[in-house]
Amino acid sequence: MFETLLDEEERGQVGIGTLIVFIAMVLVAAIAAGVLINTAGFLQTQAEATGQESTSQVSDRLQVVSTSGNVTATNDGINELDFVVALAPGSSPVDLQETTAEFIGQDGQATFDLNDNDVAEVTTTDIIGTDKGNILTDNSDRVNINIVLNGSASGADIDYAQLAEGERLTVTFTTAAGATTTKEIRVPTTITSEDSSVRL
Predict the structure, then answer these.
(1) 50 and 87 together in one domain
(2) pLDDT band at 137 (very low <50, low <70, confident <90, very high)
């Protein structure tokens, strides 16, 4: 069953040389495993962050509940817009101070922040009495965003003209997470002297 080796040159390799080679192989394998583990951990962290950012861009947005406009004293158009906004379903809290608005219509384009400390023509008012300021934290929260068109305050003009009868306007709200909400509004073709406010 077992064969006896009579030739001394046909024996296995033993000694320091073999031990060094073995240890070198173990070290190389350990280093390679460490690199793979670190790379996998980095990729997992990056994937989680990307997933969270992508989710925020889709879900952390506003929902426009209603839109109305204030008629000028001379009945020649709309000089103020009121947007009642709430959180969209599944949205995380949204800070209106970090939200921007963009107007695109017949009179051109205008982009501005909803920060009422910097833009005098924009004010935000909590209309349900929760005293949370400009941060929407719950789906039941409602905030009215009042925007004065063609404002005259120095350095705070949103640079958009008053809306005339029959005029269309596209308004896009973009939150800090990058989620957008677009609202199409149209001024009625006829505004009478009895109208102080119209639904848009």
Answers:
(1) no
(2) confident
Taking alpha carbons only, the member of 143, 170, 173, 146 closest to residue 60 is 173
Residue-number span of the structural domain to which 27 is assigned:
15-59
Distance of alpha carbon 137 from alpha carbon 142, whole angstroms: 10
Q: Which of 130-139, 147-156, 166-175 has the highest mean pLDDT?
A: 166-175
Which is nearest to 87 in space by CA: 7, 18, 141? 141
Q: Give residues with Cβ within 8 angstroms of 155, minimum separation 6.
A: none
Q: Is 95 exposed, middle or buried (0-12, 13-18, 19+ CB in 10 A)?
A: middle
- Is residue 76 domain-shared with residue 112, that is, in the same domain? yes
Q: For residue 150, give the amino acid letter.
A: N
195 found inside a domain? yes
Q: Are residues 76 and 44 in the same domain?
A: no
pLDDT one-digit tens code per residue, 48-71? 777 666 666 667 889 999 999 998
Whether residues 78 and 98 share a domain: the answer is yes
